[in-house]
Sequence to fold (272 residues):
Amino acid sequence: MLKFMNSTSQVFISAALIVCMVFAGTMLSTTPVLADSDTHKLEDHQKEYVYGSPANPSEAWIIASGMRLYDNWMAVTDHDGPKTTHPAWPASNTKKKGNTTWRCKSCHGWDFKGKDGGYVTGSYKTGIIGVMGAATMHPDDIHKIIMDKTHRYTHDMIPAKAMLRLSKALAIGLYDTKDYINDDGTVKGDLRRGREIFQNICASCHGYDGTALDWGEEGSPAYISTEANANPWEVIAKIRHGHPGVEMVSMIAFPMTDIASILKYVRTLPQK
Fold:
């Protein structure tokens, strides 16, 4: 829910491979709605990776960190978030309420296109435009908009340094999902390359067949392939940026073509 001004319009914007966690929210109404885990605990040596920052952060790290804030700033900052529904959340959408309406992705989507993308329908339909226009803006201007009277984010919610990372990620870190995922959800990419990366990196947590982690319910497993087939737009974001609040690695140092190839391969693994 960030409001961008240009000469013709206002544009509203606000921001898989998982370690002991569950995905939060979905892009399409047909996708299962999963909640963040409240039980996963980090070891002391993992907390710096999840909540800290490098002494000399790379641009890639800043983008990944900022986009995890876009996904769920509350998990990134260990903040409970507001208990009330965001004042700018449209009254026409009664399916979502409370702090989930304060997540950037809840208005603007995993594809960053809001009402012009995956959120044209479904439980996250808001009629709000996406964030792609942020790519033409300076991060300082985005920072001011995040804190304006419409969006109401404060540095008590998102610390100033973190908010600046979110602003920079929106300015320089967006990508067009259509370059990697077709409208029908099929994924472009190199299956062989995806297998190479998954088997040598991702399998350390997910297992070679992707079933080592299961965040489904008894009798209805949910593996990484389950989610990648249900909502590839969300999962490509998780692969690229990591998942907020847990020690899942970010693959942002790899080219986007490799990230799409991982997603393509993951979709071939067992779903149940």
Observations:
- The first strand starts at residue 3 and ends at 5.
- The mean pLDDT is 88.
- The chain has two domains: 3-176, 191-266.
